[in-house]
Each structure stands twice: as structure tokens, then as C-alpha cells.
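Question (not urgent): is this output format expected?
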Amino acid sequence: MGYPRKLTRRFRAFDNFAISFTIINIISGIFSSFGFGMNAGGPLVLVFGWISVSVLVLFIGASMGEIASAYPTSGALYFSAGKLAKHNKGAWSWYTGWLNFVGQVGGTAATGYAAATFIQALVAMQWPGYEVTGHRTVLITAAILLLQALANTYTVQLVAVFNRISVWWLLIGMVVIVTALWVMPEHHQSASFVTHFANNTGFTSALYGGMLGLLVTSWTFTGFDGSFHMSEETVRATVNAPRGIMRAIGYSAITGLILMLALVYAIRDYGKEAAADAPPVQVLIDALGMGTAKLLLLIVIGAMLFCGLANMTSNTRQIFAFSRDGAMPGSRWWHSVSPRTRTPVKAVWLAAACSLILVIPGWWSKTAFTAIVSVNVVGLFLAYAVPIYLRLRLSDFQPGPWHLGRWGRPIGIVAVAWILVSNVLFMLPHASPITVTTFNYAPIALGVVLIIATAWWFATARQRFQGPVSYGSPDEVAAMDLI
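Got this back:
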């Protein structure tokens, strides 16, 4: 791919799958957004939205996997955009990289924020006098980001070990939660309950309220580009990276549907639980009792922490690669690698700091979580769409060992179409009436990044940034390898 090797190639096929599976993280995604879905569409959208969006995400993953097989680098999306563009390679690569960056930061921030919310819910269950506040949520999120950054500063083997543990934590945890929700409650909702619709968003349009509920599934299925970003640290990356993407999405779709159905059928008092500060926690309490709910919350919080750790790892590799091509302020800092751990330590701390900045509005905003989620979903999926769109325009695309054959174009068209439709939706208001505390600031956060990227592009970057840098011929680059 034209780069001297700095990162250690020690991720096996399972490790590559594990990072995307951990970032998707069905327990974290479903529990953190279940309450939003209860009020934006209810069981009808939670269940059937999950099924339909999962299929559409598989289309996106397949198209991304085909590109990952052709361009297995840490630069992933922005690198492939620069290679696939016919003209203006630098501009396509530049904007894809910045969208990917803000989406990755949004994912790390949202997962940490969700974990902080559930930690406070658990504390409040244990000590009823504890008051849950936005201030405390932000401070706990900062502590979580600090711990995850420390973990990411050590060797890639440590991150790989955490990711392996996280896969089993997720699978065993899901079995425990689902079994408890099916066996322990005295009664469940009737089979027809999955058709129940609810719109408590404040908007009069039931269609709009229900469409907002698709955010639950879309938020869960983000970050599978992690397998792509870890390509330079994965053995046989041309095959194992795309397989990691597809397996992570497929297994998450099936296991997530089982978990979603278990939560939906365990609902008892819909109005009370939907209005609770943490609706899925209230569902667990009402269905299983306080003691069991506390134990299951430990599983949920652990899953969220693993998810955030993997998010930050992927975020860091994107920063490292983007800086390697001189596309970020202070690039020479962010693409440096620790000689002891062989990890981009400075990029880790930049990822943590940017995530914290995105969380700060939670100090006063009631819709901070959905806004951060929107930044995550919109930034990442637009970054996913660009190389897929460019691949559709390229008649002489040279696929890698893993490819879609004649199905590549139709699958890619569906993928891009869904990304455009969903991203427009997630930039719109999520609650009514629209006030300072309910305003969806995702368009502002995304707009600020794009304005900065555009100003910088026309000021200086377009003269020096021409897309991914080539350091020489394969033989010359091999001689530069630092490992």
C-alpha cells in the first residue's frame, strides 16, 4: 500500500472480528437506546426496525468489506476514497477522513456517556439518596475516558486480549440476560405486543416519530469499520478484515434480535417504564426484582466499557493513519509510535480529549446522548458512503481476494441510498418542543468540523495534501519497515 510498517501485525482473524463485534456491542447499543425507542415507535419499531435496518447494514458492510480487501490499511475509508476517486483525489480523501474522525470521536464519547449513565443508575439503586445529574454524568464519563486511554497506551496484545474477553462477555452476558428475562418473570406480554406503536416524542406525526426510532438500530450498528482500521495489525488482512466486518454484523444482528425480543416481552407497565430516567433499567426492576436487576446491570456496564475501549482503539488508528499523511494539525505528533509498546500513544490521548469535548454539553443538555449518537451515526455512515459511492463510479475497480462479483454494484447502490436517507433523519430534531435543553446539536458539531476542514482545505491543505502518501516502491518501503 506504499507505507513503511510501524504497527505490529499480531491481530488474528478472531481478534479482527472481535474489535468490530465489540464496538457494535448489542448489549451496549440496545440498553443505551432502548428507552428512546420505547418513546419513538415502541415495540413495532424496536423489533421490525431492528430486522430491516440490520439487513441494510449488511449491505453496507459487504460493500465496505470488498473495499477493505482491496485496500487493507489503517487509513481505511479515507485511504480508499483517495485511491478510488477519478479526480480531486485529495479532496475526496480529506473530507472522508474528517467525517470518519468526527464519527469515531462521537462513538467513543457516546459509549462512555452511556456507561456513565448506567453506572449512576446502579449507584442510585444501591443508595436511593444518590441524585443523578448531568454534571456527574460528564465527570464519570471523563474518568471512563481516562481509564480507556491508559489501557490503549499499552501494547496491542493487551487490547487484543481485552477484545477476546469482550466477545465472551457479550455472548455469555446476553445468554444470562435473555434467560433471566424469559424464565423469571411471572408473565410476559402477548405475542401481538410486537405490533404496539407509541409516539411520545412530542411530534404529532406518527411516521416521523417512528422513523426516529430507527436510530436505536443504526446507533448500535456503527463502528464495524474497526476491522478495516486494524488491517495493518491483522494477519492475512485482505481476507480477515472483510470477514471480520461481515461476521460482526451478522452475529450482532441475530443475537441482538433475541435480546430485543426478550426486553420487549418483559415490559410490564409501558407508560411508567417509558417515562423512567433509564427505561431498560426499570424494565429489569419490574420484571426481575431489584437484586437481579443490579447483577444484570453489572453485565451491561461491563459491555459498555469494553465497547468504549474498542471504539477508542479504532479511533486512534484512524488518527494515526490520517496524521501519517499530514492531514491533521500537529500531524507529526499524532502518527508517532511508542518504541516500547509499538502503539500510537499520542493519538490515543487526542482521541480521549476530543471525545470529552463532545460530552461537555451534557452538563446542561437533556438530549446530549441522542445528539452525540447522531454525530456518531452521521459522521461514520457518511464516511462509509464516500468510498462505496466512488467504487460505484469506477468502472475498472480492482477487487481484492474477498469480493462481491457482479453483486457489487447493486449492493453498493442500496448501501449508499440507505445511508443518505438515514443521515438526513438523524440530523433532524428528536424531541418537541424544541428548547435549549432538547435541541439536537449534532448538526452544529458536525458543521463546525466541516467548516474547519473546508477553511483549512482552501487555505493551505489543497496545495500540499494530495491524498494518501506513497513512500516508494514495495521494495523501497520494505527496507524502511521499522519492525
